[in-house]
Amino acid sequence: MMIYMLATAMTVAMLIATVFGLHQEAERARTKSTKRVDSFGLRTRRHRDF
Predict the structure, then answer these.
(1) How far apart are CA 24 and CA 16, in angstroms?
(2) CB–CB of 6/14 below 8 Å?
(3) In the predicted model, is pLDDT for residue 24 greater than 80?
(4) Whether residue 42 has pLDDT greater than 90
(5) Closest CA to 16 of 8, 28, 5
(6) For residue 25, which of 16, 33, 34, 44 sits 20 to 30 Å off, Cα-Cα?
(7) Which pTM value belongs to this model?
(8) Each residue of 6-23: pLDDT tens digit?
């Protein structure tokens, strides 16, 4: 029974770590897409200009 509990705890921990890693990767990709440079060397904005 103890082995099953440890296996369950490790599985849950790995799932949480995977979700956290995917979230960080998505955030990194999102910030990369906002820092793109167009063909004239100017930064392009992904949201409305005010």
Answers:
(1) 12
(2) no
(3) yes
(4) no
(5) 8
(6) 44
(7) 0.58
(8) 999 999 999 999 999 999
Whole-number Å distance between alpha carbons of 5 and 27: 33
Tell me the average pLDDT of the chain. 81
CA distance 29 to 37: 15
* 27 residue type, one letter: E
The CA distance from 32 to 44, in Å, is: 12
Residue 39 in tokens: 């063909």
User: Which residue type sits at 16?
Assistant: I
CA separation for the pair 31, 6 (Å, rounded):
37
Token pair 């921990």: residue: 13
